[in-house]
Design a protein that fits this description.
Layout lengths: L2 H7 L1 H10 L13 H6 L8 E3 L20 H24 L3 H8 L3 E3 L14 H5 L13 H26 L5 H10 L4
Parallel strand pairs: 1-2
Helix pairs in contact: 4-7, 7-8
Amino acid sequence: MSFQTYYQNKFQSHLQEFYNSIPDDMRHHNNHSSYFDSVFEDENKTFTIQVDKLSNNGRGTNIEHLKFLSPEEKIHFSISLFLTILTDQVCYTYFNSYSKFRSLTNYPKLTGTCMSMCHINLHPKHIFQHIDTESDWSYRDISMIEIKNIFYESKDFMKQEVLSFFKNHLNEIDGETFWKKCEEEFIF
């Protein structure tokens, strides 16, 4: 399956299934910055993902939240999630239209793990460090080489998605400038 096919047809439902596997009290965390509070007065609207929930041995729940994904889907899911969270962080960091962007997208936040780190937004590169953390290498079902290859394949499609989004929904932000900021954050 191509990355584009996965992103357009499965990512949203897989994200929802992943989200539904997380206990209610671990789904929403409120960031303590005053700007964040003013933009998101209702913390239940902010979907947070504690990074350990992406591993097979997520602390606090002992649930394999991504066990419903095949190895190929797990790669596509991790890249889709990386690009989604990165897009949100780039808009928040570099552009003045974040409130409007947020109201249109409601993208999730990636946070550290409770007790003390769940109020800190993490760079989405941490997704790849946690997506498969089996300690026995013979049981690992995905590799960083596979992730890198599919990530490279995803770039052109995702660039077009970003350009289209800003042209159609938020044209006060130049899509090319936005995408360049995203590329500066790529880890591959």
